[in-house]
Design brief:
By secondary structure, this protein is of the alpha+beta class. The chain has 2 domains: 103 residues, Orthogonal Bundle (Helix Hairpins), CATH 1.10.287; 72 residues, SH3 type barrels (Roll). 58% of the residues lie in helices and 17% in strands. The protein contains 6 helices and 5 strands; from the N terminus they run αααααβββββα. β3 and β4 form a beta hairpin. The longest helix has 41 residues. It is elongated, with a radius of gyration of 26 Å. The termini are far apart. It holds the Pfam family MS_channel_2nd. GO terms for molecular function: mechanosensitive monoatomic ion channel activity. This is Small-conductance mechanosensitive channel. Keywords: Cell inner membrane, Cell membrane, Ion channel, Ion transport, Membrane, Transmembrane, Transmembrane helix, Transport. Belongs to the MscS (TC 1.A.23) family.
Length: 198
């Protein structure tokens, strides 16, 4: 490329110095866009296969998008001549802030991960009757699962959804304690007010 640059007239060489980085930046942007299309299709397929909620798939897509586009931006800046030292300083500063935010939001991130595990392992589903046992034979929190969102699982403890009581349990709690799940006719052994019937 340098040999071609030296053979061109000055005006053409100047244009070549602008044109090559511009083409590289366009290629980087196009590559990031294609990577995001692939990630979108992959996340859609996983969501369909494991029955993940749409809001969780959207959250994963945003995280992947932030990482892909940030990487593309840093690479494009480097191709346009921004100093590597400046980029490294910016990256380490961003990583430090990210690490602090990660530890500050650890409980929320833990619940997000546990939500994913609940859907993948199929430990329970909406409509199931479950009990979270404290220890041994002591009765625990129980009810019918009415909602599983990225942070909480809501159990209908008694009554119905308009006139009853519900429990909102962090999803990580289901991986710290023993979970009892009723199947088939065993559900009828639970008191009617525990099933959330009308």
């Amino acid at each position: 490329m340098q040999a071609l640059h030296d053979q061109l007239p000055v005006w053409a060489a100047d244009w070549l110095d602008i044109l090559i980085p511009a083409v590289e930046v366009v290629m980087i942007v196009l590559g990031a866009w294609l990577l995001m299309r692939l990630a979108h299709k992959l996340i859609d397929r996983v969501t369909t296969k494991y029955g993940l909620p749409v809001n969780m798939a959207s959250l994963f897509l945003r995280v992947v998008g932030a990482l892909v586009y940030l990487g593309a931006l840093l690479w494009a800046l480097e191709r346009m001549g921004v100093s590597g030292a400046v980029l490294w300083t910016a990256f380490t500063g961003f990583a430090t802030v990210g690490a602090v935010a990660f530890f500050a939001a650890w409980s929320v991130l833990s619940n997000l991960f546990c939500t994913l595990l609940i859907y993948i392992t199929k430990s329970f589903r909406i409509g199931d009757t479950v009990e979270l046992l404290e220890a041994g034979d002591k009765p625990g929190m129980k009810g019918r699962v009415v909602e599983i969102n990225p942070v909480y699982t809501t159990l209908l403890e008694s009554g119905d959804q308009q006139n009853g009581t519900t429990l909102q349990l962090p999803n990580s709690l289901f991986f710290q304690r023993v979970v009892r799940r009723w199947h088939g006719t065993a559900v009828t052994a639970v008191a009617p007010d525990q099933q959330g019937g009308p």
